[in-house]
Amino acid sequence: MPKLFAALLGLSALVATAALGQTPAAPASPADLVNPLMGTDSKPDFSNGNTYPAIVRPWGMNCWLPQTGKMGDGWAYQYGADKIWGFKQTHQPSPWMNDYGQFSLMPGTGKLKVDDATRGSWFSHKAETARPYYYSVYLADYDLTTEITPTERAARFRFTFPKTDSAWVVLDALDKGSMVKVLPDQKRIIGYTTRNSGGVPANFKNYFIIEFDHAFTASQVFNGKALAAGATEVTADHAVAAVSFRTRKGEQVQARVASSFISAEQAERNLQEIGNDDFETVKQKGKAAWNDVLGRIAVEGGTDVQQRTFYSCLYRALQFPRRFYELDASGQPVHYSPFNGQVRPGYLYTDTGLWDTFRALFPLLNLVYPEENAKMQAGLANDYREGGWLPEWASPGYRNVMVGNNSASVVAEAYLKGVRPADAADANVLYEALIKDANHAGPLTAVGRAGVEYYNKLGYVPYDVKINENAARTLEYAYDDFAIAQLAKALGKPKKEIDLYTKRSQNYRKLFDQQTGLMRGRNQNGTFETPFNPFKWGDAFTEGNSWHYTWSVFHDVQGLMNIMGGRQKFAATLDSVFTLPPTFDDSYYGGVIHEIREMQVADMGQYAHGNQPAQHVIYLYNYAAEPWKAQYWTREVLNRLYRPTPDGYCGDEDNGQTSAWYVFSALGFYPVCPTTDQYVLGAPLFPKATLHLPGGHDVVLNAPANSADNRYINHLTVNGQDYSRNWLSHSELVRGATLNFDMAPQPNKVRGTQPGDAPFSMSKAK
């Protein structure tokens, strides 16, 4: 009877569901697993990502966001805000870099409000929908709903108004120089904004066009808040336009919007990305575009939270670098150059800091999206042709922030992994750029190599010559020299040239202090900085301390291990990163910077995952014959420091880098040294993941016993063969591979412990 009763209950539930017209929910597509609000609950003194909900196509030139900050505020959207002030076209890569070429639209009803300090409306996240390809929100003060769906350079807006004689939309071209013109007969507003935060020539403009589907009942233009009576056009410091409509209850007013950095005519051409597509068609095409790129990695199993975190991170990683090129009348790429102000043929990408993204973001592109990075490499060649240097931080042109010469890694890795521009001549142009940048200080301290005359003579940038973050520069220059040497070999350059950069790649040794067992700033006369506090942030290091930077020897971990005193000493020092208390010295900054606070609260000792210099550190256990510790700590970070929520990151996300760490680590491997052929093993997070690589090649990662308890690799086969190494080969993966992981709750302390199992290091290479 109990079994029969249960069966009848199940049958009644099915009948009831059918009667109500309900069917079980279909599996969510990758795009609908994304939470664009991940990381938005941030502020200047504490970052949970410092992101914004980017409503955008993959690598799209233009993003759209709901603006909760006032005009010019880098924190343009904060989850804790309660008012929206506009819907902004943005190109902002980081709140610290701020924006350029931005303008906004704001709808309303009743009395017209053009002032951005008064036109805001209350909203609730309960009446907000955010998808990568679509955004909707109810503006309570105006009883209307705004919806946005974008293409790469254009977007459709849909405003649903109440019954009113006074519906309006304000176009704010922002201050610092702008122009607006209303064309009532064409139902259009055109104009430009020059607003930027640096990194542009004097002739920089973003030309825009907004075309409505309703006739205007009235239109006005303003110089700031002052009405330009009787005018249809105004050029001013702060130009604003407003158009009005009469609407029935629920009536939708739609607008097509596009922009161009090239010209007003090109903005019109970019508007044709929408063509005759209605709102729903653009929305579905946007969803399909995201599913296409997100779907190249299919994860199965795991929890709903893990899947949402994975695809939210992958979405973030596939926004950068941003396309800065447009398509001319014949469909060929053309761009406004942020270096010389000219319109030039070819690709250009921007909005990335290579100090961050050389580590995992570009390796992810090379593995899964090589066709996109091939165009990015062509764009880098154009950067050099037009500006004379490679940008280490571009937004959109050269920006003077961060250290290193990490374009060397980005260029060399792509070429070494077969990711090359269509024009073969670009490879030599890029090599020429690397050699120039490696041997000259640039026009900004973040371009070329600051302190290069000391580095090339002494083998390090001295602590006492008034060049900040000198030890960080030295360590990164040494790795960059390794990258140049590898590219020089691949290009068949003279042995003398190869040997020079190979020798320089060992310069990390100049900063190792045997007394403390850590990296330490060194004076011009050869003595080490005194006093020395390994917990001191900044000064000799960049947004970190010696406990973070000591491990920045990506290309020669064995060499670092040797000078530390061998494997056991190396492993014990690595353990200390996680067991030491989160002590810090903030005296260099004169206060606690947000990166320090994010390390302090994470409860992982001195491990600072919220900033990039330490993100590879966990994987170094594989070099010390203790791979199970890498497996333990990667799972801890995946579980504890990421979630698909507004507080979902543990520090600044930084142009896809921290997201790319999650993507790689959830798959079970990571590019510790991007300019080698190897990925270093962690352990997979999901029971199954499949990488659909170009050419029809799949990498299948099977770990059927994977679970919260089973985080350790007991046994691994690759293409059916037992595999004990702690690394995977890029060249083998891209041909397709099947990896079968036997996961267990206890570590296997035999597998991966032989000398031959360790990943590449210069000091062990034959």
TrEMBL record:
Pfam families: Glyco_hydro_92, Glyco_hydro_92N. The keyword Hydrolase applies. Its cofactor is Ca(2+). The keyword Calcium applies. Keywords: Calcium, Hydrolase, Signal. Residues 33-260 form the Glycosyl hydrolase family 92 N-terminal domain. Residues 1-18 form the signal peptide. One of its GO terms (molecular function) is hydrolase activity. InterPro entries: 6-hairpin_glycosidase_sf, GH-type_carb-bd, GH92_a_mannosidase_put, GH92_N, Glyco_hydro_92, PNGase. Residues 744-766 are annotated as: Disordered. Residues 266-744 form the Glycosyl hydrolase family domain. Monomer. This is GH92 family glycosyl hydrolase.
